[in-house]
Give the backbone structure.
Amino acid sequence: MISNEIISQFKAALGENSVVNDETDLSRHSHDASSHPSQMPGLVLYPVNTQQVAKCLKIASDNRLPVTPCGKLTSLEGNSVPQAGGIVLDLSSMKKIIKVYPDDFQVIVEPGIVGEALNQELAKYHLYFPAFPASSHIASIGGMIANNAGGMYAVKYGVVGDWVMALEVVLACGEIIKVGSRSIKSVAGFDLKSLLVGSEGTLGIITQATLKLIPVITQKFLIKVCFPLVKQSVAATLSILLSNLEPGAIEFLDASSIKHINHYKSLRWNEEATLLIELHGEEKEMKARAERIRKLCQKENYTSFLLAQTQEEMKKIWEGRKAVHPAVMASAPNLALVPGDVGVPISRIPDFMEWVEKVQKESGLTMATFGHVGDGNFHVWITYDRTIPDGLQKAKVAAGKIVEQALWLGGTCTAEHGVGIGKRDFLLQEHGDTIELMKKIKNVFDPLGILNPGKIFA
Ligand SMILES: Cc1cc2nc3c(=O)[nH]c(=O)nc-3n(C[C@H](O)[C@H](O)[C@H](O)COP(=O)(O)OP(=O)(O)OC[C@H]3O[C@@H](n4cnc5c(N)ncnc54)[C@H](O)[C@@H]3O)c2cc1C
């Protein structure tokens, strides 16, 4: 229980209306987009600038109160589920674009701005941030940096962290620090910026970010190609990747994902293993590449091959792809999800996919597999009925088998969603004793352990 005296201190720092403890607001901040159990916070704070964030953390550390920062609460591993009775620091009101440097291809932003809103503003300068996740329309830049999110274009442009040049961060004690540089190259000391990227709110609060940009991609070409078998789509992916065709995206959807999308969006896509391949560049060259891709896919006996002809057609296809998550969640009453997010070296994708099919058959569970096949990052969405007593347990066992296989193949337990709560148990398996060093680093940044406790480490 947070005392009235502490609440008064927060109100003096932020103003009356930015310190909230009504039931609706607490409840909205008690969970993220994962199925991890809700935890009711004691207070939600809405700072509007860095100084206010610093004051909040000073009060929190003086009183040893746990603080969970959040952006738009779309995490899928419990990353932004708060400590029961603790504080949520909601950064969504800090959403200004502070400065655009068109000549340097850079922008400085506050953390609360939503990805797509940023790109809409940047379009006025003919600039673009290329590394957004599929949730860019609903997720904040701060959350994306803190989770080091990745997306459809990661195969060509990398993940969010690859585009972060510098950060302003408030430490647990309330001290404000700056890390990184606007210089394209910098080797001045330890790379603390990269340490903070992906730290899931456990090391500090990001209050400003300097991002690298590219010119707007004006020419995009999208291919949708279907195969009778998953292994054919995977073989086609590997041939494309090995043929120097530089796709901007290669996304995979299995028949189950497509069934969900068809139902949810009233579409009639072939219910087969499907690849979405996007090419970026000058029309003549890209059309030639599309034809080379068609020939590579033909070797794997595709059943349909479509090169989208209009912007509208491309938009519809991408909207279908982005609908997998809501489509699965809407597919049955009482449904809950154990979301999978693993990465494997691309040469091991065929072994991994074979394993997923085996686990699915053996478990009899409903699964939908989709993701960023071009960089070996797969999402296996395992759903279960919450009203069945051992539903969660069965889903967790199957999910565990999939993660363990990814690790065995030389991969990772989380390629983009972060560790949060859901992947904590796999961290030891992936990193061994190195996690003791990670814990020591956490202790240097946050000696009282108040920042997003229980995330990454139990
Ligand atoms: C439909 C759907 C599709 C998705 N697709 C993708 C995808 O393609 N790729 C992908 O990587 N993820 C995806 N996600 C997961 C999620 O959207 C991303 O991880 C996203 O980056 C989270 O942003 P957010 O604003 O919701 O952050 P939140 O969930 O609010 O927070 C995320 C983490 O960052 C911390 N945090 C938030 N703000 C700050 C800050 N300012 N300073 C320090 N720490 C902070 C939080 O404590 C938490 O640990 C998807 C989720 C959904 C629901």
Observations:
- The longest helix spans residues 391-408.
